[in-house]
Amino acid sequence: MEIVKTQPVLTQHFANLIQQNRLAHAYLLAGEAGAGKKELAVWVAKLLFCEQPSATGPCDHCSECVRIGAHEHPDVVEIAPTGLSIKIDQIRYLKSEFAKSGVEGAQKVFIIEDAEKMSTSAANGLLKFLEEPSGQVTAFLLTSEPNQILPTVISRCQLLELQAPSLTDLVEKFTAVGVAQNQAVLLANLTKDPQQAQELAESEDFQKLLTHLWQWYSAILKNDLMAFVKVQADLVPLVGSRDQQDKLLFMIALLARDLMLYANEPQQQFVFTMFTQDFADKLRNISAAAATEACELVLKKWRLLSFNVSIQNVLESLTLELCSCYHQ
Ligand SMILES: [Zn+2]
Fold first, then answer.
1. Mean pLDDT for the chain?
2. 30: CA distance to ligand 1 center in Å?
3. Ligand 1 center from residue 98 Cα (angstroms)
4. Would you place residue 134 in the very low, low, confident or very high pLDDT band (cuts 50, 70, 90)?
5. pLDDT at position 6, please?
6. What residue range is the signal peptide (predicted)?
């Protein structure tokens, strides 16, 4: 029942609506991956069906709550894109599931994930379904891209936006799915989705990139020109796509920022907690002013990527300029 902690306002809002019997027919829950859209929809479904609800929410252990949690409740149907889109057949499936289950007029809930991926015909089918007075139906459409949803669909829904999760919440969620404590803060800066964080943490390439990033940066901090060689030998082969290149430059910016913070005030929360123990040693001959200037340098070089300068050129010239910046 994590969602009560991460979305206290919205869970309370829905609890009040249910208590006053004022739940609307359709909600569009908008928020980034990891914000808890699905968890919120499932929480509301449980509260609607729970046999022993309390003021704080569903009990989470009665047979209704358990079946909903296991995605086995006949009156709570979930739909997600198959392939690239949600197709009209899936909306038809939804209708048929509801037609065969439950008593006429009984409460039903459906949850559509990535609702922006509904095909136009699926969206039209859904609209018709929402208009048919088939008992007490509550729809949750979930999306991280509300601007890609058809206006006709939005106009039938109440739009609720979920706040992005805080860094502390993310770190807690990531470690709960098995991400190492000393990588959780870094990963929370790269993604808000626990599954993605887990995939990155388990990816051999990502771990290699982390190691090579720190070896490369350590060489720069020693003014060792091996750093220049490491660009082509170690870093470039690990960042083939533009997205990976951007991520690398972002990580370099975060690392330069960590070092600047450390040079100014060593007692802080750092992103690269796995390397913090080496910071004192690596920064021994480096001034706080140089560490600050280095951050600006990284940001300036990062911009070059959007002018189609190759990643190798960007990193090589960054290497030379960082060396002279840290050792002026
Ligand atoms: Zn219950």
1. 91
2. 26
3. 21
4. low
5. 84
6. none
- CA of 111 relative to ligand 1 center, distance in Å: 19
CA–CA dist 46, 73 (Å, integer): 10
What pLDDT does 187 receive?
A: 96
CA 67 to ligand 1 center in whole angstroms: 10
Cα of 217 from ligand 1 centre, angstroms: 53
pLDDT at 219: 97
Spans of all domains in the chain: 2-165, 203-326
Closest C-alpha to 140, from 233, 24, 48? 24
Place 133 in a pLDDT band, splitting at 50, 70 and 90.
low
In this structure, which topology does domain 203-326 adopt according to CATH?
A: Zinc Finger, Delta Prime; domain 3 (1.20.272)
Q: How far is the CA of 9 from the centre of ligand 1 (A)?
A: 21
Alpha carbon of 115 to ligand 1 centroid (Å): 27
Centre of ligand 1 to C-alpha 24, Å, is: 22
Q: Among 179, 134, 142, 173, which Cα is nearest to 160's?
A: 142
pLDDT value at position 41? 97
* Host H or E run for residue 27: strand 26-30
> 2-165: which CATH architecture?
3-Layer(aba) Sandwich (3.40)
